[in-house]
Structures are given as C-alpha cells and as structure tokens.
Amino acid sequence: METPGSQSSLHRANLERVVRAVRLAGSLTQAEIARTTGLSAATVSNIVRELKDGGTVEVTPTSAGGRRARSVSLSGDAGIVIGVDFGHTHLRVAVGNLAHQVLAEESEPLDVDASAAQGFDRAEELVSRLIAATGVDRSKIAGVGLGVPGPIDVESGTLGSTAILPGWTGARPAEELRGRLGVPVHVDNDANLGALGEMVWGSGRGVKDLAYIKVASGVGAGLVIDGKIYRGPGGTAGEIGHITLDESGPVCRCGNRGCLETFAAARYVLPLLQSSHGTDLTMDGVVRLARDGDPGCRRVIADVGRHIGSGVANLCNLLNPSRVVLGGDLAEAGELVLGPIRESVGRYAIPSAARQLSVLPGALGGRAEVLGALALALSEMGDSTLLDGSLSAVAPAFT
Ligand SMILES: [Zn+2]
Questions:
Q1: Please, what are the domains in the chain?
Q2: In whole angstroms, what is the distance from residue 35 CA to residue 363 CA?
Q3: pLDDT at 389
Q4: Rounded distance from Cα 49 to ligand 1 centre (Å)
C-alpha cells in the first residue's frame, strides 16, 4: 500500500494527471501539458520519458508557434473506444483509438423510434462488423459512449421523455448495450454529445464555456460549463427549444405555446413554404435553395436565425458562454442563419454577457454526436487501467 503524501504516491498522481490531460485532449505539446496540469516543465519532461519507455504514450516532433516541440499522445495500440449514436432516423457507429484517431465509421438508416430492442440488435451488429474491419482485438475495448435522442435521467439511467421516443419507454440504454457487448457503456443525450464532440474535435476546441445548439426535428442545446457538460439531475438541462417567445403563439409538443421550437424546428417551419414551394420540401432542401438565392427560403432561414438568437441571448444572460456552436442541417446555411442569430444576440443580450461571444457553425456536421460519444468513452475511462497495463481486466472480451 502506498501512503498518501508519500514520494511514490505523489509520483503516481503526477503520472495520472499527465495521462488524463493527454487522454482528454488527444495530443498536447509538453508545454501544453505543463499548463494543463500545473506541473513544472522538468517534471513533465521526466514523466513523459517514463510513460514513453513504458509504451503508454507516443512522442512525435511538431512545431508550436514556429518553434520545435514534442507532441505527446496516448499510444495508438493501447486500446480502443467505441461511439454509438442513435438519431431519430439513423444509427452511426465509430471506432477510435486512444490517440483520438478514428479507425472505422459507418452510418445506416434506422427508424429508431420504432423499437428499442431492434435498435440495440442493429447497434451490436454494426459494432461487431466495424471492430472486425479494424482488426483490433476485442479485449482492447476500453469503453463505449452511447448517444440517444432524448434526456437521460442521471440517477436511474432511463430515458426521461417517452413522448419523444415512444418505442423506448422504460429502456435503460447503457445497461442494455453493456449486457450485449460486455464492456462499460456510458450514455448521454445527443445534444450533450454534440457539444462534447465539437469541444474535443471541432469548433469548440480550447473553449471551456460553450453551448452547442442543434436544430433538427426539435431544438436542443448541450451546455459545457467550465469544461464539463452540465446535465441537471433529470438530464434535461439545455432545453432551449422550450423558452417561451410568444405566449399566444402556436401550441408546442410540450403543451406550452410559442416555444422557440415552434419558430425554428423543421415541423413548424416547413409548412410556411408549402404553398409556394410544394409539400415534399425538407430542411436540407430549404438550406440549399436559400444558398442558391431563393428569396422565400432566405426569409424563412433569417427568421429562424432571429428566433434562435433570442434564445441564445437568454442563454448569454444566464451563462455567459464564450462560444455558441450551431449544429444540425441548419448550420449549412452559414451566414444566412448566423448573421441573424448574432443580430438578435446584439439586440437582446446584456452587452457584457455577449461581448466575448463568438457564434460559429459546427465543424463536424452529422458526425458531431458519434465523435462526442467517442469523447465520452475516452473521458470516462480510468487512467489506472492504462498505467497498469490491465485494460483487459476491467474490459473483458465479449464473445
Ligand atoms: Zn415547448
């Protein structure tokens, strides 16, 4: 047993701090590791050498600010993580290594709402196929991140809102997938994973206070506060779509009237264009037409942007984020939607709450959630398993 405060336990704690910093960021220069962990440059240098000799990390030459530097990442063959993302109409799976490289990724159409059991069957199949394709041994799986399109109750692990996913009533998604794969599974809703994905891999890199707003069949937000996803006890934090904009507005699926969602989500916005543009228009199509200069579609996208901007202004006043990242199909509209969002924020937010805010489109498109699931698996795995080389002891191979 190591005595707390002893030289060896201090050394061990430093090793874990360095491994954790690299695990969460993907790769860091030694100077960045020193900044992140608060350790001295000399200590970091010694620890990196020890980790490299033990095969835990890889060091490659790079340049930082025009100067030669050494980039440190976890060893690519130390283990793998798996991301599984259930959308309303698709299933997407990615396999990545601990150095944040995606080794395999595939998406297939799936009516997720229909049946949870069928969804898990398909996920199990796709995971098995992708692992086989990468040729990595299953004993190397460190964990799975799982995304579902609804709020997850943090205590019980059950899906909170059955109105959104009727076929999933009572489902415990993490437990279900853990039973099938035999490895640790961590679950979160799609908006939170989108936020995590953009923070680790995309438009939110290097930012500690961020909101990821996804406009699709609904409007949701993933909130990152001081570097951590904020979920709330019922997993419902970030329901920006149900901020009231007009209390005599259209009736929302939540039962209220005039929620932001009723001015921004596809099901409410598309009917506005039906008489002029036909009934088989999709949000994707509206964005494309708007980019080609269609005045009606441009007007609708601008109005959606103004309304989202009102919601973002409220968010700024409450949380003062430094970045808002817009995800989903709508982000493809670029300045056509981002301009009106910024305009509303300028009009409705307290100036000091929005001064440092940048509003950017997501960099990952439809991959944000599955990459966020990889990031979740990476953030939840422990460092002791890596340092002791006993990954297979906590994550037994499944058959
Ligand atoms: Zn509502």
A1: 7-75 (1.10.10.10), 80-195+369-380 (3.30.420.40), 203-363 (3.30.420.40)
A2: 26
A3: 62
A4: 54
Please state, in angstroms and rounded to a whole number, the distance separating the CA atoms of residues 333 and 338. 8
CA of 239 to the centre of ligand 1 (A): 9
- 146 Cα: distance to centroid of ligand 1 (angstroms): 26
The residue with greater pLDDT, 99 or 64, is 99
How far apart are the CA of 208 and the centre of ligand 1, in A?
28
Among candidate residues 155, 148, 202, the one with its CA nearest the CA of residue 176: 148
Report the separation in Å between the CA atom of 339 and the middle of ligand 1, taken as the mean of its atom positions: 25
**Where residue 111 falls among pLDDT bands split at 50, 70, 90?**
confident
pLDDT score for 360: 97
Sheet strands (E) in the chain: 27-29, 57-64, 67-74, 80-86, 90-97, 102-109, 141-148, 185-189, 210-215, 219-225, 228-229, 323-327, 358-361
**More confident site: 397 or 14:** 14
| Mean pLDDT for the stretch of residues 214-228 | 90
